[in-house]
Amino acid sequence: MTDTVGDTTGTAVTALRDLDTSHVSDALDRLGIAGQCLGIMPLDRSFRLAGPAFTVRYVPVGTDPGSVGDYIDDLDPGTVVVLDNAGRMDATVWGDLLTATAARGGIGGTVIDGVCRDSDRALELGYPVYSRGRWMRTGKDRVRVDGYQVPVTAGGVRVEPGDLLLGDADGVVAVPASRADEVIAVAGQIRDAENRIRADVEQGSPLMTARAIAGYHTLQTRTRSAD
Amino acid sequence: MTDTVGDTTGTAVTALRDLDTSHVSDALDRLGIAGQCLGIMPLDRSFRLAGPAFTVRYVPVGTDPGSVGDYIDDLDPGTVVVLDNAGRMDATVWGDLLTATAARGGIGGTVIDGVCRDSDRALELGYPVYSRGRWMRTGKDRVRVDGYQVPVTAGGVRVEPGDLLLGDADGVVAVPASRADEVIAVAGQIRDAENRIRADVEQGSPLMTARAIAGYHTLQTRTRSAD
Amino acid sequence: MTDTVGDTTGTAVTALRDLDTSHVSDALDRLGIAGQCLGIMPLDRSFRLAGPAFTVRYVPVGTDPGSVGDYIDDLDPGTVVVLDNAGRMDATVWGDLLTATAARGGIGGTVIDGVCRDSDRALELGYPVYSRGRWMRTGKDRVRVDGYQVPVTAGGVRVEPGDLLLGDADGVVAVPASRADEVIAVAGQIRDAENRIRADVEQGSPLMTARAIAGYHTLQTRTRSAD
Question: Would the N or C end of chain C have less CB density within 10 A of its end CB?
Fold first, then answer.
């Protein structure tokens, strides 16, 4: 990583890129951490993202229309923008010009608890946007920024600035920065066991046998409820 | 346009084809017109449509099963069929044979506040259908036509016969026929400003600077609430 | 069919492969059978499935975590796995290793009243999964198997072991095994009539004329309400 997200974070992000969200989800379960963002999906199945969060919280406008945000020029490459618009489906907080600026700046992707617009541009540039859907109506004069780099909610999960996001075709998981090494280590074990099991199955082994040999169920056992 | 939707309408439709729904949406906001259809999306992201509305309103059948409609043979080329099935997800009002007939007749597309079936045919023929989803269960004997060329609702928006519809990957907007010139003019200004800003950003300008030069926020300012 | 689902079933499955879900749905309507699964869609529009059901019912775990199932190694080729997780969106009952095992074993596909994970593997292997969506959080320690080969619910439809499932881009229909011949015969008539109508329309006939010649509306008339 030549970006500026920090060496420790950079190492963790590199490790995350070799994992799927299912591996990290199982590791979060095993460690008793809630981190699976519900209902926030990639605009395109081919998208993946990994990186530390820059967070923005939106609220409905009152008498002051406020601003929809002028943060994009100041972000470090590799950052993942996490926009908490409280799940609103009727007012976008991301569109064409933000996509173009983010893609040019090497931003890692955008995760929205809400909707985006100009989805064609994100696909054209291969810029990974995760959201509850897409629509064309702007959030301008409907919502305003209430805080930058504050704890936010994304798909029912608390995300703090610097927490690590991983997204693939099945959605997004958030990993608390303080637990990243632990989560990544467990997720790596789960991935390795699954790869062994799948190789066995592809060569004709019954799944039950392959799982038993790999001790798979034990790997997944949770230490406490993550619900 | 060699179609028969009328010269004035034809000119407006041609202009709409050069706009995105986000441009028109911002123009509607600025002019205080509600026209963004919520929850009605293209069957395929590649679809676009533009044209004047032919409207059909459906209601549940009572003791008389009524008809699901025999209007398709009578429409002018370029017309957009707008079917108001009150958002019902469990009874289709569009399918294979209507798609085949519409595609052959040069109909501009179909917008459904409800669901369609035989989505494969629409994709095969490149016929743009916008809907709340797809399912295979017919509306026959479940819903019937209550009126043709009456005001209808599509995604929360009132659509009158002859109003102009524009659809792209982000959804559908409806423009009142009586305000079309005004909306198109403002939308064109917004598109041009966005194109200038994006060009600046692609050449390395900060977004905030590019926006300020183009006077972008002023262009988007609404004259009154459109919510 | 060289599989072991039985000769009678095998013949019916072969016939189903030549039908679309819309044909079967109309036949179910005409015969007064409820069989259209609402809200369960293919992970990919290109997927199709046809085959007899092997059913599994899930319930939330109590004090006993139970098992998420070890059935996959025992299924006959051609079987369609039907998993009733009560529409839960927050706990998967199908993923990577089940997909790999099922694809290798020639299983016909999976229908889930709930969600799946590792959707990329299903796409990579062309293994047809139908579900309410996708997410990465496991059902392990959240739900457990309550019964195999019991009557289950899928998208509001009762499915018994051995009932026949047909899936295409528009969703899934279930045909009671005891009525399969009847349903397939009627669906075949509807398909043939639609093909004649579409051929006429493609050669310039008005749809209303083509429908009248084929006696289409009569074919669709129901014997009693299927709602």
Answer: C
pLDDT score at B137:
98
Nearest to C96 among A29, A194, A210 (CB): A194
Question: Looking at chain C from residue 13 to 42, which residues have their Cβ under 8 Å from any Cβ of chain B?
Answer: 20-22, 24-26, 29, 36, 38-39, 41
Of A38, A41, A169, the CB nearest to C120: A169
Residues 6+ positions from A76 with CB-CB distance below 8 Å: A3, A4, A5
pTM assigned to the model: 0.94
Per-residue pLDDT tens for B129-179? 999 999 999 999 999 999 999 999 999 999 999 999 999 999 999 999 999
Whether C215 and chain B come into contact, CB under 8 Å, resolves to no
The number of angstroms, rounded, from the C-alpha of B79 to the middle of its chain's C-alpha atoms is 11
Distances (CA, A) of C215 to A35, C9, C26, C190: 57, 31, 14, 10
Nearest-neighbour CA in chain C from A70: distance (Å): 32
Task: Report long-range pairs for B191-196 (Cβ below 8 Å, ≥24 apart).
Answer: B191/B18, B191/B19, B191/B20, B191/B23, B193/B219, B194/A96, B194/A97, B194/B23
Question: Would you tell me which residues 73-92 of chain A have a C-beta closer than 8 angstroms to some C-beta of chain B?
Answer: 73, 89-90
Whether C145 contacts C94, CB under 8 Å: no
Q: Can you name the CATH fold of A7-182?
A: Glucose Oxidase; domain 1 (3.50.30)
Q: What is the DSSP letter of C86?
A: E
Residue B170 has its nearest CB partner, among A89, A104, A136, at A136
* Contact flag B138-C171 (C-beta cutoff 8 Å): no
Q: How many distinct helices (H) and strands (E) make up chain B?
A: 7, 12
Pair A59, A87: CB distance under 8 Å: no
Question: What residue segments make up the domains of chain A, in order of their start?
Answer: 7-182
Chain B contact present for C206, CB below 8 A: yes
Cα C135 from Cα A156, distance rounded (Å): 14
Q: What is the pLDDT of residues B172-206, one digit of tens each?
A: 999 999 999 999 999 999 999 999 999 999 999 99
CATH topology of domain C7-25+33-175: Glucose Oxidase; domain 1 (3.50.30)
A42 close to A169: Cβ distance less than 8 angstroms: yes
CB contact under 8 A, A136 and B20: yes
How much is the ipTM here?
A: 0.92
> Per-residue pLDDT tens for C67-84?
888 899 999 999 999 999
